């Protein structure tokens, strides 16, 4: 199996690097921008992780260098970079190429299907707490690192099985082949929106919010509304996932979880406001769910974007 990873940042760099380390794929290459290509060619790909470090020379290519014949594309860009990613991918996508997006949210699925055809697009998600350092190192902060992927129609295709086999040999990275990938994507979105809206509005991680008066109850109200939205969309979060995996996080005063959106906002960067907060606001209104918390979070994000566009963000030390 030949795998092309679009992006070599925190997500693409980590899982692509682990696939190379495991040796379960015939070839793994990274489709990147010129600056990242030069850095990878000079320094190699470096991963720092409590589960083991990795450093190696890797193949990095620009769009006109990728060629065709790729079995799988792992798409690991930010949602706001999707249009640029599609343009970069076009020369590399052949008749048998399957595209596994690891983006946040849901709207990218239809966008990719419109660009490449329904048959080429799978569902996917990543679960990892990692960041790309200014020096270009992928720093995994620990915990479970996994991806899930599957055909959107629920079939267990040969390409899904082959990708799972490649991940089975990768150290410190799990690849889950799912016959119900849409459900898993909604499970993640319920969690993601709750963390993102809470941490962005309160400028704090989950534990810091939990230690504030009323913080636990506030986060659980938001979580319950997100669960109601998922149910209205036809993908109710399974009770064992909601009550045993998700809710305990929002009741833990020591939880360190925070959304990458908070890091992006505090660093003055672009954020996935429309793709996560805006999408869930629209879904809340379709479902008839109280949207006051969702609207506040979305307005906050758009006001930040307006201030950023005007060059009025506070200067960073």
Q: What can you see in these coordinates?
A:
This protein has 317 residues and is an alpha/beta fold. It has 2 domains: 2-179, NAD(P)-binding Rossmann-like Domain (Rossmann fold); 183-309, N-(1-d-carboxylethyl)-l-norvaline Dehydrogenase, domain 2, CATH 1.10.1040.10. It is built from 12 helices and 12 strands. The chain has helices at residues 10-22, 34-43, 82-89, 108-116, 158-168, 181-202, 206-210, 215-232, 239-246, 260-266, 273-287, 292-309, and strands at residues 2-6, 27-31, 45-48, 54-56, 59-61, 72-75, 98-101, 123-127, 130-132, 138-140, 146-150, 174-177. It has a 5-stranded parallel β-sheet, sandwiched between helices. It has a 4-stranded mixed β-sheet with strand order 4-3-10-9. Strands 8-11-12 form a 3-stranded mixed β-sheet. Strand 11 (146-150), helix 5 (158-168) and strand 12 (174-177) form a beta-alpha-beta unit. Helix 6 packs antiparallel against helix 8 (215-232), helix 6 crosses helix 12 (292-309) and helix 8 (215-232) packs across helix 11 (273-287). The chain is globular, with a radius of gyration of 19 Å. The model has no long low-confidence stretch (mean pLDDT 96).
């Amino acid at each position: 199996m030949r795998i092309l990873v679009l992006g070599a940042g925190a997500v693409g760099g980590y899982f692509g690097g682990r696939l190379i380390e495991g040796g379960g794929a015939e070839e793994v290459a990274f489709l990147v921008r010129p600056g990242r290509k030069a850095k990878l060619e000079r320094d190699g790909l470096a991963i720092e992780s409590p589960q083991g470090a990795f450093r190696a020379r890797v193949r990095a290519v620009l769009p006109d260098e990728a060629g065709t014949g790729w079995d799988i594309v792992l798409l690991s860009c930010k949602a706001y970079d999707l249009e640029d990613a599609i343009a970069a991918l076009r020369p590399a996508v052949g008749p048998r190429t399957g595209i596994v997006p690891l983006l946040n949210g849901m709207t990218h699925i239809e966008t990719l299907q419109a660009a490449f055809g329904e048959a080429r697009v799978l569902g996917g998600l990543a679960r990892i707490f990692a960041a790309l350092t200014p020096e270009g190192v992928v720093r995994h902060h620990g915990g479970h690192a996994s991806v899930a992927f599957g055909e959107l129609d629920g079939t267990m295709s040969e390409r899904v099985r082959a990708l799972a086999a490649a991940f089975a040999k990768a150290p410190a990275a799990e690849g889950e082949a799912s016959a119900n990938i849409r459900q898993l994507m909604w499970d993640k979105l319920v969690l993601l929106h709750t963390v993102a809206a809470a941490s962005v509005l309160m400028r704090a991680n989950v534990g810091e919010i939990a230690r504030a008066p009323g913080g636990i109850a506030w986060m659980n109200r938001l979580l319950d509304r997100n669960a109601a939205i998922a149910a209205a969309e036809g993908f109710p979060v399974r009770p064992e996932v909601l009550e045993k995996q998700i809710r305990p996080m929002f009741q833990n005063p020591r939880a360190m979880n925070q959304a990458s959106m908070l890091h992006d906002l505090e660093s003055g960067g672009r954020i996935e406001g429309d793709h996560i907060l805006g999408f869930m606001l629209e879904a809340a209104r379709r479902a008839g769910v109280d949207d006051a918390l969702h609207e506040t979070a979305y307005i906050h994000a758009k006001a930040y974007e307006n201030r950023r566009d005007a060059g009025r963000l506070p200067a960073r030390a």
